[in-house]
Write a structure and sequence with these properties.
The protein is α/β, with parallel strands linked by helices. Helix content is 46%, strand content 15%. The termini are far apart.
């Protein structure tokens, strides 16, 4: 278990390196939600997503000797970019195990930061096995995308900053894939904003965390087919799940169509570009999936904006928002 002291220590490590991202508000969003929505815009973070926080904290926490040997990560894109950038800032090598179907913009950005890409088939191969074997062969330190204490603590700085900048919250709504962001934010928010309700959001096609909470143990599902590539996880992290069980009130789901409609609304009314995973938490607020928020102060994570123009247009064309 990590605690608020770990999140505060992470905040110290990333200070002056990670961006302190803005909190956005919108009268349109407030009217649709029936609440005062405070959106933490991690789409403006270095690397385009919240992942940089945990990646940098994890690498900075390594001993100089271990760090110098290099790091390895497996990721469909955002953690990959974050590790690649954090490694470059530390002057160390990075190897990224990435699926063949990862968004091209994310793969290109990861390579652009100087990382070596090793590709695999996410539907036929297990990335954890590929990553562990490669890390062992090359003497690299494996930094997984969410199941790591320093990664969790780093992601928790999102909620810590939100409360520091905006004051106490009634509800905090956080997207969830493997659970690093949700576990970290729940740890921070419940410590610095007593009484806050924390709710996670998954795509309906990939509700492994919701199922796990209902079952009382970690459930594994097939790789979900969803536009939210950052949430195509099959099971919550081993370290993350007990934290989520203890501190998160509920996990709700949204459809791909609702996610894309929220991407369009954020683009048109808030003037921000969100990738599908980055829009899922806001989608849950706007579609009424999060109960009890009327008139409340609701924090929402806009977790990332790594989507290319062509993919954005493709998604909108395949899932056009309802008329009216």
């Amino acid at each position: 278990m990590i605690g608020i002291e770990d999140v505060r220590a992470a905040a110290g490590r990333i200070a002056g390196v990670a961006h302190r991202t803005p909190v956005l508000t919108s009268r349109t969003v407030d009217a649709l939600a029936g609440a005062s929505v405070l959106a933490k815009a991690e789409c403006f973070q270095r690397g385009g997503a919240f992942k940089f926080r945990g990646a940098y904290n994890a690498i900075a926490s390594l001993s100089p000797e271990t760090r110098a040997a290099g790091v390895l990560a497996y990721s469909s894109g955002n953690h990959a970019q974050a590790i690649a950038l954090a490694a470059r800032l530390h002057g160390i090598p990075a190897v990224i195990v990435m699926p063949y179907d990862a968004p091209p913009t994310k793969a290109a950005a990861t390579a652009g930061y100087g990382a070596e890409l090793v590709r695999y088939d996410r539907y036929d191969q297990v990335r954890e096995d590929v990553g562990r074997e490669l890390a062992s062969e090359r003497g690299l330190t494996l930094i997984p995308p969410y199941d790591h204490p320093d990664v969790i603590a780093g992601q928790g700085t999102v909620a810590l900053e939100l409360v520091e900048d905006c004051g106490p919250l009634d509800v905090l709504v956080v997207c969830v894939g493997g659970g690093g962001l949700l576990a970290g934010c729940a740890t921070a928010a419940t410590a610095v904003s007593p009484g806050v309700r924390v709710v996670g959001v998954e795509p309906a096609a990939g509700d492994d965390v919701r199922q796990s909470l209902a079952a009382g143990h970690r459930v594994t599902i097939p790789v979900p087919r969803t536009v939210a590539d950052g949430q195509q996880t099959t099971s919550p992290g081993e370290l993350n799940f007990p934290i989520i069980q203890r501190l998160v009130e509920d996990v709700v789901t949204v459809t791909d169509e609702e996610i894309v409609a929220t991407m369009v609304l954020a683009f048109e009314r808030m003037k921000v570009v969100l990738e599908p995973s980055g829009a899922s938490a806001l989608a849950a607020v706007l579609t009424g999936r999060v109960p009890g928020i009327a008139g409340r102060r609701v924090g929402v994570t806009l977790s990332g904006g790594n989507v290319g123009a062509a993919r954005f247009a493709e998604l909108v064309g395949a899932h056009p928002p309802p008329a009216g």
